[in-house]
Amino acid sequence: GDCVITVQLTEEDKVEDDVVFYLIFTGSTVQHCTSTRKINPGSLETIAPGHDCCETVRVALCASKEGHPVLVVAEESFQFIQDEAYDAAQFLATCAGNQQALNFTRFLDRSRPPAADVEFLDEKVALAFRHLKLPPEWNVLGADQSLNENTPRETLMHFAVRLGLLRLTWFLLQQPGGRGALSIHNTEGATPVSLALERGYLKLHKLLTEEEAREPDSWSTLSHTVHAGDYCVKHHRGLDVYMLTAET
């Protein structure tokens, strides 16, 4: 989700300004309705919704004009795929608190991916995490609540900070156990806060230590979301489009 979709209209569909176009994505359990922005008489653009699972959905392009019935202009299939970012987010979500798995992730630290790759990884994995269906009891520190702050261990927060993943760190901070992870030492005596300082990640250190720290700039920060029961409305300020998501 959250990528730009462009719709090309055929000659007969290029109509006057008072016609409003929108897209309806119908999945197995969730339906999304997105408004569109006209780029020119023959092109529209909108934001792909973040979906709850990997599947092929039906997409209908609809046209609406005051005083007229809604018209379905075209229909097409659209596939939400399971990519590397989705796999990575799922893996990280399941290994919260799993010391063997978290120690395994440390081999990434030795290869030190280039800054551009880290930026891409951060944006994509944080976005995938946002769209995962995490269980209600999910916790950054894992399921074993008997462990206390004095038990040295590796955490998901250590992983995110070690790689300099600013947006993923922010996401984890908002989750249960996120703030608590900041004071936990690993077996080498490092906390996520001390790791950020040691590695010279000044933005990350500020994010972890300042109460008024704001969410890092990203594609997702352009969106404002309001939840209400089975419904969710999202406004994407960059394109000025709206998205309504409902459980079907």
From TrEMBL:
An example molecular function term from Gene Ontology annotations: MAP-kinase scaffold activity
GO biological process: adrenergic receptor signaling pathway; positive regulation of canonical NF-kappaB signal transduction; regulation of Rho protein signal transduction
Any GO CC annotation of this UniProt entry: membrane
Database matches in Gene3D superfamilies: Ankyrin repeat-containing domain
InterPro entries: Ankyrin_rpt-contain_sf, Rho_GEF
PANTHER family: A-KINASE ANCHOR PROTEIN 13 (PTHR13944:SF18), AGAP007712-PA (PTHR13944)
Name this polypeptide is given: AKP13 protein
